[in-house]
Amino acid sequence: MVMGILLAIVAGALVSLQTIFNNQVNARAGSWATTTLVLGMGFIASFIASLIFEGSATFSLQNMKPWYWISGAIGVGVVFCLVQGIKRLGPTFATSIVLIAQLSTALLFDTTGWLVAQKIALTPGKIIGVLVIIVGIIVYKFGDRWVGKAARSKKPSTSHTLGQ
Amino acid sequence: MLKGILFALLGGACITLQGVANNRISYDIGTWQAATITQLTGFILAALVLVVVRDGSWKDMRQVPALYWFGGAFASVIIFSEVTAIQYIGVTFTIAMLLIAQLCMTFVIDSRGWFGVLRRKVTVPQCIGVMLMIAGVLILKL
Hints:
Structural class of chain A: mainly alpha
Strand content of chain A: under 5%
Largest sheet of chain B: none
Radius of gyration of chain B: 18 Å
Structural class of chain B: mainly alpha
Oligomer: heterodimer
Order of helices and strands of chain A: HHHHH
Number of strands of chain B: 0
Shape of chain B: globular
Largest interface: A-B, 127 and 120 residues
Strand content of chain B: under 5%
Helix content of chain B: over 70%
Number of domains of chain B: 2
Distance between the termini of chain B: 37 Å
Distance between the termini of chain A: 24 Å
Order of helices and strands of chain B: HHHHH
Radius of gyration of chain A: 19 Å
Largest sheet of chain A: none
Number of domains of chain A: 1
Number of strands of chain A: 0
Shape of chain A: globular
């Protein structure tokens, strides 16, 4: 339990850091050059980690199912969707929807048990909890506008993610 | 507008799907291997798209401070942590904690102006937003 929470926090902090690094690259190079670089770096780092922690088991892929080979396409789809969404809606609105969609989809996977080890029952508490988190996301993203601090900078938000 | 919303919804759903798919794959071949395979296949596909759309050029990469080239490397630890967290605490709780940590980290970086980010003060609505999210997680676990 505590381990799971800690790992999720590590992942979230690193997503934020990675997003900022990626945005720095994206500001000068195009989004596909950025994506290619990001995924290439991710591959190299994962491969090295796999060699260190798994040794030769890195290459024992006999349990691969065919769709595993195209799973990387999901990440590419993420980048395409985010770029399109941000272009049409602006970063604040787009990333709010992205965060909400992330959480809602998570609840969907847990309650249907699709692709996950154990199904988690959908209780009223789960639904209320997710709704409160969604309200939190909206307040986080739009609260400043409501308060009317128009003097604040218009720099695009750094909290959207471009794939992982 | 509607199209933008659909893209954003699909993008968010795919981010979670990515974590869940990596989780599924890790059962069969191991977590680091899953991270390696998905990043490799994603890299190949992105490179193909890059060749087709010719968006930007590699020459521009030289203007980027070298430190930022390595942002992608974080993905290995992100995938490993996320997949393992899903196994311990389920998808919803994992994503909720991940998002809170992500926004808090962005908070810190924005307020310090680290990594070339335009320095911004943390505002009251942002604090309230994060507190609501934490409250939501507590309700989730009741």
